[in-house]
Amino acid sequence: MEWWWTLTIIMGSLLVILASGLPVAFSFLVINLVGAYVLWGGFGGFHQLVDGIYSSVTMFALVPVPLFVLMGEVLLHTKLAFKAIDVVDIWMGRLPGRLCLVTLGASTLFSCLSGSSLGTTAMLGSMMLPEMERRGYKPAISVGSCMSGGLAMIIPPSALAVILASTARVSVGKVLIGGILPGLFMAFLYSAYIVGRCWFSPNLAPAYQPKTIPFREKIRETMVYLVPLTGVIFVVVGLMFLGVATPTESAALGASAVFILAAIYRRLSWAVVQKSLIGTMKITLMMLMILTGSLAFSQMMAFTGSTSGLVQSVTGMDLPPLVLIMMMQVVILILGCFMEQVSIMMITLPIFMPMVKALGFSDVWFALMMLVNLEIGLKTPPFGLLLFVMRGVAPPSVSMTDIYRSTGPFVLIDVLTIAFMMAFPSLVLFLPEHIVK
């Protein structure tokens, strides 16, 4: 059978099963079981399938995933992140859209401490939206600023970045470090948009006189609640960049540092530990179940020759290589409207990564562009997860239409970021290329 027939049958069957409403992990399992029986010699193929699944979840590169998730869970349940938001607030001047900028600053900070976009967005929405509504801020600007919690997917530590790098067989450390500049660049563009729009439309964010706090008090609050958290950021990111620790070691040190901080602030209790561990297990189990099925799926694709046939066909097309990269990004963007991020990675990576390497592009560069694209999928209707998270924590006066309209400009900024990453690869590759060996 020709490779394209095999590819059509496999991908078509997977999409039909997904459309039936079966969870993604079990959809992959069904395809893998049928494929192992048909392609790998009947029941004997099941042994090969089990071996593939076992090897996929015992990869050492995946160890940082639960540790990064645990960091975010502990920070969330101990409410240490809330005090950091208060510190960011006292340093903001009378800028247009002040509370939106406070929200964005808190989002950027918390993204450096947690790999959970959903948790960051839920925290910002529940804390900041009621206050912005009380101050007269319109949903057109307030909701979008809270959706900046998606930065946690880009800025390390990012659990999704670890899964993407592990699945694509790319350096985990380089992908994590490579997310720093694009993430900060996105935060800069978000802040520029907020200031600009509130400057020209002051009715969106009415100005108010913030409480005056003595400079000495600001310094004290910063030293007590913000500096220790920046120390955790250095433990996770700085040691990795300096070559002192591997991503796994940095994740372990970061998780330990967060527990020590919680104990110092007397926020560590058995209830907090229990909630954090349960939340970590739920999130990690979901990710790994999808990962196991998808890696076995990619092995089956390679066995049938579908992957190599598609790569040869695409690379033989008379199109500029960068146009092909753009086409891949468009596919990911469309899938992001209908599917969950890990699922998109597992379906597209086995096909796209061989093409990227065959075209001569950097795999780290493409992985980071894909990560930003997946972050867009969290904010695009009809199934963007952050949209539903925001709906759950927003005040009753905020409608789903308000959420869509407020998020739109931030999605366009994300698309602009991908364009910059394509035009200026150094935005992604500068830091990874300077990691101390």
Name the helicity range: over 70%
Number of domains: 1
Major sheet attributes:
none
Q: What pattern of helices and strands is seen along the backbone? A: HHHHHHHHHHHHHHHHHHHHH
Q: pLDDT average, as an integer? A: 81
Number of contiguous helices: 21
Task: Return Rg in Å.
Answer: 22 Å
**Pairing-aware structural class of the strands and helices?**
mainly alpha
N-to-C CA distance: 47 Å
Number of strands: 0
Outline type: globular
In terms of DSSP E residues, the strand content is under 5%
Uncertain residue ranges:
none
General description of the model:
The protein has 21 helices and no strands. By secondary structure, the protein is mostly helical. It has one domain (61-433). The chain is globular, with a radius of gyration of 22 Å. The model has no long low-confidence stretch (mean pLDDT 81).
Can I get a quick summary?
This protein has helices at 3-19, 24-39, 44-57, 64-78, 80-91, 98-111, 117-134, 139-146, 159-168, 172-178, 180-200, 215-241, 247-264, 270-304, 306-315, 321-335, 341-358, 363-377, 385-393, 400-423, 426-433.
